[in-house]
Amino acid sequence: MMGQMIVNGVVTAALIAPPAVAFSMLFGILRFPNFAIGGYITVGVFTGYAANVLFGLPLWAASLAAMLAGAAVVWASDRIIFRPMRTSSPVTLLVVSIALTFVLEHTVRLVFGADVRGFDLPLERPLVFGGMHITRPQLYLMGASLLVVIVTHFLLTRTRIGKAMRAMADNSQLAEVRGIRSVLVRVMVTLYCGALLGLSGVSAGLDLVIEPLLGWGLTIPIIAAAILGGIGSVYGAMLGAVLVGLAEEFATLILPSSYKIGVGFAMITILLLLRPYGLLGQPEIKK
Amino acid sequence: MQTLISRRRVVTGSTAAMLGTAFVPRFAYASDPINIGSLTPNTGGGAPYGGNMAAAIKRTVDQINAAGGVLNRQIKLTQEDGETNPETATRAADKLINVNQVIAILGTWASSVTLGIMPKCQSANVIQMCVSSSSDIPLRDTKGLVFNFQILNPVWGRALGQLALERGYKRFKLMALNNDFTKSILDGFVDAVGAGRLLEKPFYYNANQASYKSEVSHLLEGNPDAVFIPGYVTDFTAIYKDIYRSGYKGRVITVTFAASAPFKAAVGDAAEGILHGYPIPPLDSPAYKQYLREAGLEDNGQIQHPYGTLCRDQISVLALAIQKAGSIDVDKVKKAIVDVSTGPGKKTVYNVLDGLKAIRAGEEINYSGAGSPVEFDSHRQTVDRDVQLYEIKGGKDVVLTTRKG
Questions:
Q1: Residues 3 to 42 of A: which have CB under 8 A from any B CB?
Q2: A133/B203 CB distance under 8 A
């Protein structure tokens, strides 16, 4: 039972780690918590569904379509809504992003309806190792999630654009003075994070169920993982995801499962009281 | 020349006139429309049914209005989406009561929604007509304003529990969505199978979770012969995927709207063998056949629009009761609701227009509906609805048996 709970927690972590990384990166550049991630995930999963079920494409191609749709919608929402409002307060932008989630989810509902759906992929019986069970798609999900974290780390530390992203996240005015093209960086970040969120939509559709509120249901654990790990830290987001996943699993040993989300958040509150910038985040120096 | 009316007098007089009209009581005139609201689950867990329910109410109101209305007054219908969410529904009920000034709210589906809006309806003296099954509904209705067109859960749960016993299952575990609907259906199931056959006390999960894996691991611990999981299609689909992926070989039992067509499409062949059941419309009733024609559906012998039919019955019974009461006084109307729907020795009518004609001719009527015969007990709960039980075979619902409600 204990081993299975760890497996369950890691699978959940694999599901929420990539969008937590995306949330963290978007926060670094846009400087507000973008709650529209739920809407972006919903757009991603339904694009993947349309490509896979309605157009008969294989799942890898449907995932690619979801990544493209995610990139397009995150870029477009930044270009049309958030960039013109960049002088507004973070609280205003946060509220606008919540509204955007509802707009995106209801648009999806208008087009596809409210019924639950699934990809054109048969459910599989599990592989069993030492009494613990896991399915092949869940192994792929964990592999993909790990790959996303490694690629993102490589992008941020080994490429010029990645270094520019970090510089912008650190101090955008100073970065601009040093010749970094802030608009280009912003475009690249939104496209990259959009692709991650689109891919996360497909992962969530495989693990849970495809429906318009799928993204909204994942929003709180994703943001919790990003905050717990430390905003701006890629590995922190992954660690945060693992801790949130495990906390929710193990909470059921202590309390009825209808209270499990509360236990996870109690843990986050205590950790943040002790370390406000998250587990792997850096304290922000204000002058 | 001296003016007869000074400017000061004009201002004083106008102000007095305006203030005066503000305190004139608002009278309902015979030509005023009768305001009725609907609060159907167009989105959320009840979404597969909400559209049919809202459409059935609208269609019936249109029929009534086209035939001259009730008491020579048109019905003004205001329709809201409760989102299968008690918080949203409560806000919508506020609007229906205070802005639209409805005398009745029809079409609530989730028990949590019906119970959630009940305090507002009770304090505003507004009639509620629902298709919810929680046993708490009659207990909390202190003013006799709630008319439930669905049978209560214990009947439903018992039918499923009896089926499980007949199949020879002896060890059960139960898990349910954490809401008002499921608690009493679990009671009925436990009543049928016996508490001694449960490996553990039933437990609950919340909707919209990022993962149900820990709940599923807990549910399947001890490898029970069968598990009973009443929930909505959204959470049940995610849970069932995890059950299947865990390698569980026992039997899964649920309620029909959780294992509906979208569920089967989402999980494919993995749905094979699931047992489920729910209260059904009387398929041979003339009212059910009329409903199919009104909704443009073919009579294929299968259950269609199980909740849309009940909503046709709600608005029909309400309109007939208003005609019978001769006014929209809620106390008279609620008494008339039982008069026009319940009791022997009356002329049976199967649609609202025939019923209105009969009442105008001075006849006593008993409306027999598309969703049920509509017979209320002393707690204003529908009795006499059958429960049909199914097994999913080859991707289709195969009828196993029908039990009397």
A1: 4-5, 8, 11-12, 15-16
A2: no
Q: Is B301 an 8 Å CB contact of chain A?
A: no
B141 vs B126: CA distance, rounded Å: 12
Show residues of chain A in contact with B239, CB under 8 Å: none
Domain range for A166 is 22-216
Is A282 inside a domain boundary?
no
Whole-number percent of chain B with pLDDT over 70: 92
| DSSP state string for A14-35 | HHHHHHHHHHHHHHHHH-S--T
Taking the C-alpha atoms of residue A257 and residue B214, their distance in angstroms, rounded to an integer, is 8
B388 DSSP β-pair partners: B278, B402
Task: Tell me if chain B has a CB within 8 Å of the CB of A49.
Answer: no
Q: Which of B43, B218, B268 sits opposite A257 (nearest CB)?
A: B218
Identify the weakest region by mean pLDDT among A88-92, B225-229, B347-351. Answer: A88-92
The count of structural domains within chain B is 2
The number of folded domains in chain A is 1
In a domain, B29, yes or no: no
pLDDT at residue B360 is higher than 90: yes
Q: Say yes or no: B147 and B157 in one domain.
A: no
Asked whether residue A212 is assigned to any structural domain, the reply reads yes
pLDDT at B9 over 80: no
**What's the pLDDT tens digit per position in A218-243?**
998 898 899 888 887 888 888 899 98
On chain B, the residues whose CB falls within 8 A of the CB of A116 are: 233-234, 237, 262-263, 266
The DSSP output letter for A169 is: H
Burial B95-126 (b: 16+ CB within 10 A, else e): ebbeeeebbbbbbbbbbbbbbbbbebbbebeb
Query: Is B17 inside any structural domain?
Result: no
Nearest CA to A75 among A148, A26, A147, A16? A26
- Residue range B83-92: mean pLDDT, rounded: 92
